[in-house]
Amino acid sequence: MNQTDNNLVAIENLFKEFVISGSFLDEITFEKGKLIRKRETVKAVNGVNMNIAQGEALCVVGESGCGKTTIGRLVMGLLQPTRGSIHYAGQRIDDLSRDQLIPYRRKMQMIFQNPYASLNPRKTVNYTLSEPVAYHFPELNKSERAEKVAEVMESVGISPKWGDRFPHEFSGGQRQRISIARALTVDPEFIVADEPISALDVSIQAQVLNLLMDAQEQRKLTYLFITHDLSVVEHFGTRVAVMYLGTLCEFGETKKVFSQPKHPYTKALLSAIPKIRTTESKHIKLNGEVPTPINLPSGCVFHGRCPHATDICKQQIPELDSSDSTHRVACHAIAEGRI
Ligand code: SF4
């Protein structure tokens, strides 16, 4: 997935492993008269290549544990990759120091899933929103800061009169609006939104989604939108990246992927969306469970559950094909014309 002039973010051959075997001493075992070090890791992200174009909303979708949240955190610099690189506007950012990252902290913001946990319960809304403005715009005086905060509060539908209130005085939807305001106060270019509506009541999910879409249009934002909700992807995503067990299996324009899914996993995932005006059930039921990311399957990570798997699937990792840059898929059966 080459970087083009229109790319804001480029993720190249990204890996992230989490060590779960404890300290060095915990990893030492005695086997057949020898001391052996055994290190156990969770392979959360496995060789992902992905680009995010300026102004788009790229949705990353997949079941829980597929690595989508880890990708968002890696892009934001909250986690260090085990291997691979992340570029922002042409500049490599995954190896920058804390100080070197400061300019990117303003341009890149994150909205978290849980508005109850992401706001400091001891701070007023005014404090929560003014603090990042004071940090990133030291040239503004107190009244200019207050004006900026009030303008952002109004834009997300929270009255500036409520600035002296604390998070517990707001509903879940209002708290998420405040979290969005906190991200917007520093005039970001790029936002990672990690399941931003999944903790909210269904009745207000659409309002918050519309707010994010309006903010994108008005502020020319680029989103990396992480979700497990396919109807959100269909509504919101310019392009979609489908992940399974830390691996990218299909990547393309949302309309193409939804109307003509190619990868067997994407087909199964999309078949679960309820269809209006049809009584015919085409739900594809996958056999077995998602394997553990501690011992990844060889070859295609989906081979244990795939109805089209053959020997090559167990041996070789399929690569994303490059014949159509608007809709790419990693599958041996498709490359061989078997499906
Ligand atoms: Fe199935 Fe093989 Fe394609 Fe993987 S590569 S999705 S196992 S057919």
Question: In summary, what is this structure?
Answer:
This protein has helices spanning 24-27, 68-75, 102-107, 115-118, 125-136, 142-155, 172-184, 202-219, 230-236, 254-259, 264-271, 311-315, 332-335, and strands spanning 7-19, 28-31, 34-37, 41-53, 57-61, 83-88, 91-92, 108-111, 190-194, 222-227, 239-244, 247-253, 327-329. It is α/β, with parallel strands linked by helices. The protein has one domain (7-335): 3-Layer(aba) Sandwich (Rossmann fold).
Report on this model:
By secondary structure, this protein is of the alpha/beta class. It has one domain: 3-Layer(aba) Sandwich (Rossmann fold). It contains 13 helices and 13 strands. The strands form 3 sheets. It has a 7-stranded mixed beta sheet with strand order 8-9-10-5-11-12-13, with helices on both faces. A 4-stranded antiparallel beta sheet has the order 4-1-6-7, with helices on one face. A two-stranded antiparallel sheet has the order 2-3. A hairpin with a 2-residue loop joins strand 6 and strand 7. Helix 5 packs across helix 6, helix 6 crosses helix 7 and helix 7 runs parallel beside helix 8. The longest helix is centred in the middle third of the chain and has 18 residues. The protein is globular and about 65 Å long. Bound molecules: iron/sulfur cluster.
